[in-house]
Design a protein that fits this description.
620 residues, Immunoglobulin-like, TIM Barrel, 8-stranded parallel sheet, 6-stranded antiparallel sheet, 9 helices, 34 strands, hydrolase, Ig-like_fold
Length: 620
């Protein structure tokens, strides 16, 4: 790929941008020097990339945010209007070649989370975010391989659409070889497909690859992550893509059923995802990541495929306001096709947080509950447009048309007790009054990482509501801030799990700015809430419901795919006990009702299953 790039802020005009002054930048990337700019041009010069056996070349650009025009040797060769849609341009290179890419900010409602103040301006710079490659190619050659899979009565089918380019008229057959990914010695299955193209045309050959007795891809904790590699070969040109075979259904309660098995979802929301976030999601015992109103890169999807993390992929649409339904439908279809080869793709969200009911925090007293109901009553949202866009999502994916606050009739609730209103104890009456006990797409609280002072001049407040934080925590002390977040995140997560909510998603995994809703800081350093979420998200765990002096139920939750039998032990002050328990797959069981003495300062629970055990401690 080209290594030396320059960039410049430009004005809208028309034609190839030619600013007077360029400055050195890194590509791919988001040059902080252009934070706040609406249009930025990027320029590089590269030599002919061909080897002796190559006749042509291929330019690939990934992650063009949010709109772009691509100029190659003074010719407009491509345009882009979606960051998730890669640009591929076959061309015959000169000895020296100039590439200019002009990127500009969203011009409609589909800029997503990067078009809000929840992401720092330095991370929303129009640009080439994910990658650039220029490679020599034979003539003809394979431009792209699109894959999607489906179960059939006899096994499964992988549908392949192979795009080829030829500078001369083409009438040929390409070879498709399919084998388990990572199987270097296996010969695999071989298929052939005809392909025809006029000179200079990009043609697509489609073929259905039959897979007998397929090895399925499973979410982590449910089975292995089997995948298949499909190799498309045309004469001397080869291109390979990987896919997996998994079916997804949406249950009547809004949950996910994968390969015919219900999957209790423990999820985390990603605000500006990196590959390392997949590892962090695994660390906190999540089995799903929600791409919160932004698209994930291929590298992040690949990491989720490998880790067995389901992906709930939002459209880049968030906040109040009307939007173009036809544009939304077109984007939803393209997004599903772009990521169809990833077995981790399980669900699509359409309109995120369409109201701003709780701009300021509401307390938990009697009058505060009246204020809460008044605000919800005043919120006005017509979900019809979101439902029309949702109709464009393929049937093989779950879909959540609306992710919103009480009063929006959401398909997935945004619930923030302890942050937007009241405390954890208010969760019950909110969910019961507004029938929000099913899918929860967001919950959590903000906090300050260690060493961060919100009064510093350079503090980046993107994604951090200082007013709600001060009202809830009452201090700018990082220790107190993180302690509050940790206890709230744990309390809500435990309550939702013991109430058997089919989908529970914490917001968020990692801060976007210098502080925020993440259980990890912006640089990936864990906050206190990372440990509390890890404990609350243990797949098999014992919980003390309503931890306080007096009688409390011990509930054991089992998210494993098989029944478990074990022993729960508890200690509260001078009192202790133990009880045997058996919990079916995906079930919750009250193991025992314990009496917590007033003198107890904590309650310790231990759940032992075979040689393994998990602990859960409650400070009173």
């Amino acid at each position: 790929m080209p290594t030396e790039w320059s960039g410049a802020a430009v004005d809208p005009g028309g034609g190839k941008p030619e600013p007077r002054d360029w400055q050195d930048v890194d590509v791919p990337g988001r040059p902080a020097a252009f934070a706040g700019e609406d249009r930025v041009a990027y320029r590089t010069v590269f030599d002919d990339p061909r080897d002796t056996d190559d006749a042509l070349a291929l330019l690939e650009l990934r992650g063009l945010y949010a709109n772009a025009e691509v100029w190659l040797n003074d010719e407009l060769v491509a345009e882009s209007d979606a960051v998730f849609d890669p640009v591929r341009v076959p061309f015959e290179p000169d000895e020296e070649n100039e590439l200019v890419v002009e990127c500009w900010a969203p011009e409609d409602r589909f800029g997503g989370i990067h078009d809000t103040d929840r992401i720092p301006a330095s991370e929303s710079v129009p640009g080439i975010w994910w990658g650039v490659d220029v490679t020599g190619q034979p003539d003809p050659f394979v431009v792209d391989v699109e894959l999607s899979s489906r179960r059939t009565g006899d096994g499964a089918t992988i549908d392949a659409a192979v795009e080829v380019y030829s500078s001369e008229p083409l009438d040929d057959r390409l070879t498709l070889t399919t084998k388990p990914a990572g199987d270097r010695r296996g010969r695999g299955m071989m298929d052939r497909a005809s392909v025809s193209a006029a000179a200079g045309e990009r043609a697509v050959a489609e073929h259905a690859i039959e897979v007998r007795d397929p090895s399925l891809w499973w979410p982590r904790g449910m089975g292995a992550q089997h995948r298949y590699e499909v190799r498309a070969k045309l004469d001397g040109a080869v291109r390979t893509e990987t896919t997996g075979i998994a079916t997804v259904e949406q249950t009547d309660e809004g949950g996910l059923r994968v390969n015919g098995e219900d999957v209790p979802v423990r999820g985390v929301a990603l605000q500006d995802a990196s590959v390392e976030d997949a590892e962090r999601a695994v660390e906190v015992n999540a089995n799903l990541v929600r791409a919160h109103a932004h698209a994930l890169s291929e590298e992040v999807y690949e990491a989720c495929d490998e880790a067995g993390l389901l992906v709930w992929q939002d459209l880049p649409l968030t906040g109040p306001g009307v939007f173009d339904i036809a544009r939304g439908q077109e984007l939803a279809g393209r997004l599903a096709r772009t990521y169809a080869h990833h077995p981790s793709l399980a669900a699509v969200g359409i309109h995120d947080e369409p109201t701003e009911t709780f701009v300021s925090r509401v307390g938990s007293g009697m009058l505060d509950r009246l204020r809460f109901r008044w605000r919800v009553w005043r919120s006005d949202y017509d979900r019809g447009a979101a439902e029309e866009v949702a109709d464009a999502v393929p049937d093989e994916l779950a879909v959540f048309p609306v992710v919103g606050e009480p009063g929006t009739d959401p398909d997935a609730a945004a619930l923030y007790p302890g942050w937007d209103y009241g405390g954890v104890a208010d969760l019950d009456w909110v969910t019961e009054r507004y029938d929000l006990g099913g899918v929860v797409g967001e919950f959590g609280a903000g906090s300050l990482p260690d060493g961060v002072d919100p009064t510093d001049e350079g503090f980046d407040a993107a994604g951090f509501d200082a007013g709600k934080h001060d009202a809830a925590v009452g201090s700018d002390d990082a220790e107190a801030s993180q302690a509050y977040q940790a206890e709230l995140v744990r309390g809500v997560a435990e309550r939702l799990r013991t109430d058997d909510a089919p989908v529970v998603v914490a917001n968020a995994l990692r801060d976007a700015g210098d502080a925020g809703m993440g259980v990890y800081a912006r640089d990936g350093t864990p906050k206190d809430a990372a440990d509390s979420l890890t404990t609350a998200f243990e797949p098999v765990q014992a919980f003390l419901v309503g931890a306080s002096p007096g009688e409390c139920d011990v509930v054991v939750a089992n998210d494993a795919p098989e029944s478990v039998s074990g022993r729960v032990s508890w200690t509260a002050g001078d009192e202790s006990g133990e009880v045997d328990v058996t919990v079916g797959a995906g079930e919750r069981v009250v193991a025992e009702t314990v009496s917590v003495p007033k003198s107890a300062s904590s309650v310790d629970l231990t759940l032992a299953v075979g040689d393994a055990s998990v602990d859960n401690t409650y400070r009173l």
